[in-house]
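One chain shown below:
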Amino acid sequence: MDTIRTRLFTLAEENYREFHSRLCPNTDNILGVRVPLLRNIAKEIAKGDWRTYLASAQDDYYEELLLQGLVIGTVKADIEEILCYTADFVPKIANWGICDSFCASLKITKKNSSRVRAFLEPYLASTQEFELRFAIVMLLDFYITEQSIDQVLLALDKIKHDGYYVKMAIAWAVSICYIKYAEKTMHYLKHNTLDDFTYNKALQKITESIRIAKEEKVLIRSMKR
């Protein structure tokens, strides 16, 4: 594992460390390795004895933790084994960067939609900020579909948590729901129990999309609370 750490040190960029540290406040262990490079290392590990790697991987640096998540998302294994590793990894998530990159890597979800959706259920009821964000971003990444849009909006509306990164994830998810399914989401925006901050952030994110017409943006802005 020291070899992995040495590689990370070699790939680290000070300018990128400073940039990414500003994006992830209260995270002081960032080396400054770009995510595409971490994905390449994850692919290498996934082709070898990845179970031994995960059993002994170090957690001291942001990139070491993110690399574990990317390996879990990259390996070829049975869905139940991957979900076991996921369950072990989620409690380690302490910032949005690791959360969101990890979620995006779990592409096995596409072929195991029902199983993963059931797995997410306890996390959607969690009181922990980043366990909730994990579940929300998973919905955002893989479940905003014709078949699931109604259930996604219902699940988002049930979440009540004061965490900033929960509220921002819900707002982001609602905005993507609107971009993909405007009519259903407009109905939701008129009948929801979101707090004002989250609701207004969702409207803001909708208006920031280049996929929304100017006239629509005027309407959306008029709905602000």
